[in-house]
């Protein structure tokens, strides 16, 4: 060992084992420098404090009491009496109607029968779905459910009456569907409302059963919303429409009476004469063998006497071949519109040629021209 006495040996330092107790003490002494970790610890402490406040004193820091809060709700919860209009938004629908938010303490309900003026099976048929914002009328209250009962039907009904009043004022003809009958007339629907048409105001003499589900051209005679009275006339509507028909127009009429010289035809309230000479190209010896009161037939307008409000009519002009009105009147009625169109074309051509001839004649004579109305008046239909 004496040989190594002059050597300087390195100092050996023992390292602590990671499993030794001293290692754990050193790790715990490391300071936290992660900002995210500090924020997480701060939020945890805030939540713990809020939880303790909610558990021990929930109203701590609130500037009003719970009673004051309910009193404020009652103060601003305005009442909605029956008949008042309110705005709301549909937020849910079901098989019986729709739930409506009216921006109050409780919601309101729109029943199916109050959702539309027309009969529907579900509210979707009336375009009512979540998100729809509309104005409603309060029609009642469901005390048990603590909610108001709303209606769109009432608003639509008022609008329908207003439309009927306007249509009456403008003397406009509309179509109505027959849905029922009484001893005195038929019940129709117009603008979603029920109206009454007396039999005396129906141009075609038919029973209520024969008219069921058919559409009639109508004009308003009486519109009284307060009395729920809506009276209409088919004769008035037909009369005004027939007045517009010119020469060569085909119209439908009903035989009123038969005379030796012809038959009187009712054309929507206007009386027309079908002279015996205008029934057929073949000779008619007995009109009663061809026409009977109550028969419905198609006729052509030959002329219109506006002063007497009387039409001159013809079935002769509608015969595909001479004598068809006697042998096969059904064929005449089937071909009536087609034959009449051809007839009107011939009349228009004749008018044009006559006008040209007369203008040429007047030019040669050095006189003024002549109007097309004068030419039409100079043409007669036989």
Q: What is the chain-wise order of helices and strands?
A: HHHEEEEEHEEEHEEHEEEEEHHHH
Q: For the largest sheet, list the strands in their spatial order.
A: 1-2-3-5-4
Arithmetic mean of pLDDT:
79
Please tell me what the overall shape is: elongated
**What is the number of strand segments?**
15
Summarize the biggest pleated sheet: 5 strands, mixed, barrel
| Broad structural category | alpha+beta
Q: Bin the helical content.
A: 25-40%
Please name the defining characteristics of this protein:
382 residues, elongated, alpha+beta, structural constituent of ribosome, 5-stranded antiparallel sheet, disordered C terminus, S1_domain
Task: Please give the structural blueprint.
Layout: H1 21-28, H2 35-56, H3 66-76, E1 85-94, E2 97-101, E3 108-111, E4 133-142, E5 147-151, H4 153-170, E6 174-181, E7 185-190, E8 193-198, H5 208-211, E9 215-224, E10 229-233, H6 234-243, E11 250-259, E12 262-267, E13 270-275, E14 296-305, E15 310-314, H7 324-327, H8 329-334, H9 336-365, H10 372-378
Parallel strand pairs: 3-5, 13-15
Antiparallel strand pairs: 1-2, 1-4, 2-3, 4-5, 6-7, 6-9, 7-8, 9-10, 11-12, 11-14, 12-13, 14-15
């Amino acid at each position: 060992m004496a040989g190594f006495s002059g050597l300087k040996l390195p100092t050996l330092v023992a390292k602590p084992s990671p499993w030794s107790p001293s290692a754990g003490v050193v790790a715990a002494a490391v300071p936290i420098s992660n900002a995210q970790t500090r924020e997480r610890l701060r939020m945890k402490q805030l939540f713990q404090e809020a939880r303790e406040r909610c558990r021990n004193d929930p109203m701590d820091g609130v500037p009003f009491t719970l009673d004051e809060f309910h009193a404020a709700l009652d103060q601003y919860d305005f009442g909605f009496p029956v008949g008042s209009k309110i705005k709301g938004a549909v937020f849910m629908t079901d098989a019986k109607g729709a739930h409506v938010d009216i921006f109050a303490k409780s919601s309101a309900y729109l029943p199916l029968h109050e959702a539309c003026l027309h009969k529907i099976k579900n509210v979707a048929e009336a375009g009512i779905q979540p998100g729809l914002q509309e104005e409603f009328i309060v029609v009642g209250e469901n005390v048990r459910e603590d909610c108001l009962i709303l209606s769109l039907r009432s608003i639509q009904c008022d609008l329908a009456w207003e439309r009927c009043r306007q249509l009456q004022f403008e003397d406009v003809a509309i179509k109505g569907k027959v849905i029922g009958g009484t001893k005195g007339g038929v019940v129709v629907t117009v603008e979603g409302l029920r109206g009454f048409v007396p039999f005396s105001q129906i141009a075609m003499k038919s029973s209520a059963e024969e008219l069921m589900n058919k559409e009639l051209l109508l004009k308003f005679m009486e519109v009284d919303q307060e009395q729920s009275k809506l009276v209409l006339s088919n004769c008035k509507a037909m009369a005004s429409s027939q007045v517009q028909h010119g020469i060569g127009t085909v119209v439908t009429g009903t035989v009123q009476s038969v005379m030796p010289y012809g038959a009187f035809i009712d054309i929507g309230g206007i009386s027309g004469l079908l002279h015996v000479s205008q029934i057929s190209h073949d000779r008619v010896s007995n009109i009663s063998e061809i026409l009977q009161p109550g028969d419905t037939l198609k006729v052509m307008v030959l002329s219109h006497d506006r002063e007497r409000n009387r039409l001159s009519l013809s079935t002769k002009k509608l015969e595909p071949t001479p004598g068809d009105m006697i042998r096969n009147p059904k064929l005449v009625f089937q071909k009536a519109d087609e034959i009449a169109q051809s007839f009107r074309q011939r009349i228009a051509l004749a008018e044009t040629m006559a006008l040209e001839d007369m203008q040429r004649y007047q030019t040669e004579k050095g006189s003024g021209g002549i109007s097309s109305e004068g030419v039409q008046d100079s043409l007669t239909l036989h």
